[in-house]
Write a structure and sequence with these properties.
The structure holds two protein chains of two kinds.
Chain A (H helix, E strand, L loop, with lengths): L1 H6 L3 H10 L1 H28 L2 E2 L7 E2 L3 H9 L1 H33 L3 H16 L4 H7 L7 H9 L15 H26 L3 H9 L5 H12 L1 H16 L3 H7 L11 H11 L3 H25 L4
Antiparallel strand pairs in A: 1-2
Helix pairs in contact in A: 3-15, 5-9, 5-12, 5-14, 6-9, 9-12, 9-13, 12-15, 14-15
Chain B lengths: L2 H17 L11 E3 L5 E3 L4 E7 L15 E4 L5 E5 L4 E5 L5 E5 L1 E4 L2 E4 L5 E4 L5 E5 L4 E5 L5 E5 L15 E6 L5 E5 L6 E4 L5 E5 L8 H7 L4 H6 L8 E6 L5 E5 L6 E4 L32 E6 L5 E5 L4 E5 L5 E6 L11 E7 L2 E6 L4 E7 L1 H15 L2 H14 L4 H14 L2 H10 L3 H43 L4 H11 L1 H14 L1 H10 L4 H22 L14 H25 L6 H11 L1 H13 L8 H27 L3 H46 L2
Antiparallel strand pairs in B: 1-2, 3-27, 4-5, 5-6, 6-7, 8-9, 10-11, 11-12, 12-13, 14-15, 15-16, 16-17, 18-19, 19-20, 21-22, 22-23, 23-24, 25-26, 26-27
Helix pairs in contact in B: 4-5, 4-6, 5-6, 6-7, 7-8, 10-11, 10-12, 11-16, 12-13, 12-14, 12-15, 13-14, 13-17, 14-16, 15-16, 16-17
The chains are: A mainly alpha, B alpha+beta.
């Protein structure tokens, strides 16, 4: 009973404890202050604003759940954006995650100098992230575009596809491009993790009856880079939830029939074009909770036991 | 005689006379298509009013293979009497008026040669497709020659092109559109001066990727030897009151087109039949494919399509809904043998029979008029006004789905979404139902959103508070429940399935080694599965339900679950015994049934969500089911690997062998029962032979 009282003690007791350890609190203070001002307060302010009508000029007016009602029931474009964003998160995210893992594993087997070169090559898309014009050239809508020309020569298509402005096609094309761009993000993490795998583990594994590379990957390498795996997954999913720029650049903003609209673009639309800050905050709050929930799920899936 | 007796006699006589009204049996099947696109009987929308033979028309002699007919705007009927190379004109009373058989070309009289098509424009000019002479002859109303449009001349037309114009139509600007034999490029379009301008409204060929790929690797000669893929050619062309061209072609879909100035098909097809016209299926009992010979369009854009192959007329509303099916092939009055042309005048339509040389006049019945009346409101968007006539229609034909759809739309307009849902459901009209459901859902949520969200937040807070309080008092609900479950061994093994779902390898191992009551638990799971699947068929909303609950036999449905499971268990046991599998039959049974548990878990939310999701959300709906199936397969894989102590490849191999085994057993079974049957028949015949021999 006594220990229980200590754990769930009164406020006074807590204060006593704090006084006892105040040096620690001083040490934490700079970070805590920054965290408070740049993360906690904006999030809470956003949550409050999501319940208001706020156009920056007039003071925010509390309107209850109206923003959310409008968002879910009257805003069809938002639903399109949710659908597209989830497509990015569920298809592009995992695909690029596994691609990163496989590539990192393969490249890690190379000799150090080739490995450095290959690493650079794979990381290049992320470094030069905004070179959309390459893709605009490849997916150019006339018959001189690389993809159109190639497919027409093969006889698969008869007339050039409007890759980036056809509402049925552009999301797929952008997903492919996003896949290419996001290859680098988790890649470096995995490479770093793979470099740190203890060789002794592999050797003892070989003695204990690891028969092939796949078993080595599954039983030794993956368990030992679990923290990196989680980090990579979280990065990947958060990245795919935040996809916006590339859509706006390639398919236009707004894209034809909102075919490549994403949640972040919707937020940009209402926040910095229409100045409906309350509404934009509501979108942000939903995005916030969605990412939190998804992160929790990922952590549950790849738990370091 | 008392007053009442007198009255009753008078009444009886009256009734006798009233029964004596003309009662004509419809000489053809009247039907419409239900939601499954099956033919269901329906009241007649049109009845044959009279048959115009040459005596009826007061003609001097019989018509000889007439090929086309057309009304001018005054109601005079022009019949192209192809075999006699003349045009027969009937006056407004459909009696003989005059005959145009020759016309003057530069001082010489000329005649037609086997003409096939006629068209009268608003000025009364007569356009005749003079097939045998390879020209279009334009006469004025008196029969004097105005112009002759000959063979088209252009670079794209080969010199040796044998021009045989079949049908002709002229739009408001005087441009002439010609259907010619063997022309697959589309309609031939001439300008008013008679010069060829272009091909118009070409039918598209759907690409065959395989063929195109193959052709990449062939040289010119080999390519020439492959089958030519050609678009279909048009059969007829008509023009509506707004000046749009309608054309029909042979095929199984998109047979009827409304062409805009670019030659694109802009016909409305919001109806449930989509882009298919005519008879919707052909099978052994109905082997003839619909072949449209002619079209007619009235002021309200109702489309009358004449099907030469079945001798029927299909009446479509302007929105592409099939309203009525009229006619058939026979010698009876009202049917035809070779219907080739149709035109409409004042609500009646006239069908020309080439081989009989007669014209049949069809008149809408009361029912037909009622449908048209309701439909006219419906098409103008006056849904509220259309409600009453639709209800009248339903009194006559409770199967007329279009009426339910009309009523549903009326309710939608009034904002009574729930009633609308009911109507659309009766008509099995998924698109409308989905729309109504969406509105109803939004309305419901708009009213209750704040309440639901507040409740949700309160519940979440409550959860955390309760958890905190319980934790401070050192009570764990989970442990209490666990203790309760642990007391009963069957329950314990039953709930173990949740552990297996997340840890299949360890779970199945423990199930095999330590859990003794898993057999009883597996039966409980199987019963659960049966109940849930029965519910899934019975309670899933019709949007997502491929079955109709009233058509499903519960017993056979349960057998369709239990039967395959039993077959699988027996066959897998047989196969794995041969391949050193360590699992006993009970292991296999328990593993299979436990693995099916995700289906139970995922089907239940599916049943509920089917009532909430619209068609657009079908992807989310099917994802739930897919997850369940994949989970089940993974569990099975892990389970069989564990109980048999197999490698992955061996597991898959034996599973495939078991399935082959099931098919084999089914085959053997079929052969066996067939043989038994044959044997029985043999004994029966022998007995009969003997019996008659000794009689």
């Amino acid at each position: 009973m006594d220990s229980e009282r200590k754990r769930y003690g009164s406020f006074y007791e807590t204060l006593q404890e704090m006084k006892k350890n105040k040096s620690l609190y001083y040490m934490m203070a700079p970070f805590m202050i920054l965290f408070l001002f740049f993360t906690v307060i904006p999030v809470i302010a956003g949550m409050y604003l999501s319940f208001t009508y706020y156009n920056i000029i007039q003071p925010p007016k509390f309107i209850g759940w109206s923003n959310y009602i409008r968002l879910f029931l009257d805003d069809d474009v938002f639903l399109i954006a949710v659908k597209n964003t989830f497509k990015f998160a569920l298809i592009t995210g995992p695909l690029s995650y596994f691609a990163c893992l496989i590539f990192a594993w393969l490249i890690n087997e190379l000799k150090p100098r080739t490995r450095a070169l290959a690493t650079l090559l794979f990381y290049a898309p992320s470094l030069s992230g905004s070179v959309y014009f390459i893709w605009q050239y490849i997916f150019s809508p006339d018959m001189y575009g690389l993809m159109n020309g190639f497919l027409m020569r093969l006889g698969i298509i008869k007339e050039p596809n409007l890759w980036l402005s056809d509402p049925n096609l552009n999301l797929t094309v952008i997903m492919i491009i996003q896949l290419w761009m996001s290859l680098g993000t988790s890649f470096l993490t995995f490479i770093a993790g793979l470099q740190n795998v203890d060789i002794a583990l592999k050797e003892s594994g070989a003695i204990d009856g690891i028969r092939n590379r796949w078993q080595e990957l599954w039983y030794i390498i993956l368990p030992s880079i679990k923290p990196q795996l989680i980090l990579g997954a979280v990065l990947q999913v958060v990245n795919s939830f935040a996809v916006s720029d590339i859509c706006a650049q390639l398919a236009g903003f707004p894209s034809p029939l909102y075919s490549a609209h994403t949640i972040v673009l919707h937020m940009v639309d209402y926040g910095s074009i229409r100045y409906e800050m309350g509404y934009a905050s509501a979108i942000a709050v939903i995005l916030f909770f969605t990412t939190i929930i998804i992160n929790q799920i990922i952590r549950k899936l790849i738990k370091p036991e | 005689m008392s007053f009442f007796k007198k009255l009753s006699i008078v009444l009886a006589i009256l009734i006798l006379f009233s029964v004596n009204v003309v009662f004509a049996e419809v000489p053809y099947n009247t039907y419409n298509y239900d939601d499954n696109l099956r033919a269901v009987p329906s009241p007649a929308g049109y009845l044959p009013e009279k048959v115009l033979t040459y005596t009826e028309m007061e003609l001097p002699d019989n018509l000889n293979t007439p090929s086309d007919l057309s009304f001018d705007k005054n109601g005079k009927l022009y019949i192209l009497d192809g075999g006699n190379n003349r045009i027969v004109v009937l006056n407004e009373q459909l009696k003989f008026d005059r005959i145009i058989s020759k016309f003057n070309v530069e001082g010489k009289d000329e005649t037609f040669n086997n003409p096939k098509g006629i068209f009268i424009n608003d000025n009364g000019d007569i356009y005749v497709a003079d097939t045998g002479n390879a020209r279009i002859v334009i006469l004025d109303n008196q029969g004097n020659l105005k112009q002759i449009v000959g063979k088209p001349v252009a670079d794209i037309i080969p010199k040796d092109f044998a021009y045989k114009p079949l049908k002709v139509a002229v739009d408001k600007l005087g441009r002439i559109f010609v259907v010619a034999e063997g022309v697959v490029e589309g309609l031939l379009q001439f300008n008013p001066k008679g010069e060829f301008e272009r091909y118009f409204g070409s039918n598209k060929v759907s690409p065959n990727y395989f063929e195109m790929f193959i052709r990449q690797f062939l040289n010119r000669q080999q390519r020439a030897q492959r089958i030519l893929i050609l678009p279909v050619e048009y059969r007829n062309v008509a023009i509506d009151k707004e000046g749009f061209l309608y054309a029909c072609a042979r095929g199984t879909y998109d047979q009827i087109k409304r062409l805009n100035a670019l030659g694109d098909n802009i016909i409305k097809r919001e109806g449930r039949i989509g882009d298919r016209y005519g008879d919707l299926y052909y099978n052994s009992s109905n082997p003839v494919v619909t072949d449209f010979a002619d079209l007619a369009i009235d002021e309200s854009n109702t489309l009358y399509a004449l099907d030469n192959a079945h001798g029927r007329v299909y009446v479509y509303s302007a929105l592409g809904d099939l309203l009525f099916i009229v006619g058939g092939i026979s010698n009876q009055k009202g049917n035809s043998l070779d219907a080739v042309a149709i035109d409409i005048w004042k609500g009646k339509f006239y069908v020309l029979d080439e081989s009989k040389g007669i014209i049949t006049v069809y008149k809408p019945t009361d029912f037909g008029e009622l449908v048209f009346y309701a439909n006219s409101f419906y098409m103008q968007g006056k849904y509220a006004e259309s409600a009453k006539p639709w209800q009248e229609v339903l009194k006559r034909d409770a199967h007329f789905d279009l009426a339910y759809i009309g009523l549903g739309n009326a309710y939608m307009k009034e904002g009574k979404f729930k009633e609308a849902m009911k109507c659309f459901k009766t008509a099995y009209y998924a698109k409308g139902y989905s729309k109504a459901l969406k509105e109803y859902r939004a309305e419901f949520l708009r009213k209750n959103f704040a309440f639901i969200m507040n409740l949700l937040i309160i519940l979440i807070l409550l959860y955390f508070i309760v958890r905190k309080v319980l934790r401070s008092k050192n009570i764990s609900i989970k442990e209490i429940l666990d203790a309760k479950i642990r007391q009963n061994e069957v329950l314990r093994d039953l709930f173990f399935v949740f552990y297996i779902m997340i840890h299949p390898f360890d779970g199945f191992w423990e199930l095999k080694r330590e859990r003794k009551k898993s057999g009883i638990a597996s039966v409980i799971i199987l019963i659960l599965l049966c109940i849930v699947t029965v519910f899934k068929v019975q309670l899933t909303n019709f949007l997502y339900n491929p079955f109709k609950p009233e058509n499903i036999n519960i017993a056979s449905q349960i057998f369709s679950i239990v039967g395959p499971i039993c077959a699988w268990v027996v066959l897998n046991w047989a196969v794995t015994t041969l391949f050193e599998g360590k699992g006993t039959m009970k292991d296999i049974w328990v593993t299979t049934v436990y693995s099916l548990f995700p289906l139970v878990l995922f089907y239940i939310p599916q049943i509920f969500l089917s009532h909430v999701f619209t068609l657009e959300e079908s992807a989310y709906y099917s994802i739930i089911g897919t997850v369940g199936v994949i989970w089940t397969l993974l569990m099975m894989f892990a389970g069989f690997m564990t109980i048999h102590d197999y490698t992955p490849s061996k597991t898959i191999g034996t599973a495939a062998l078991s399935i082959v085994g099931i098919l084999f057993v089914m085959f053997i079974g079929m052969v066996f029962f067939n043989t038994i049957q044959q044997f029985g028949k043999f004994i029966q015949t022998s007995y009969l032979e003997l019996k008659y021999m000794f009689q």
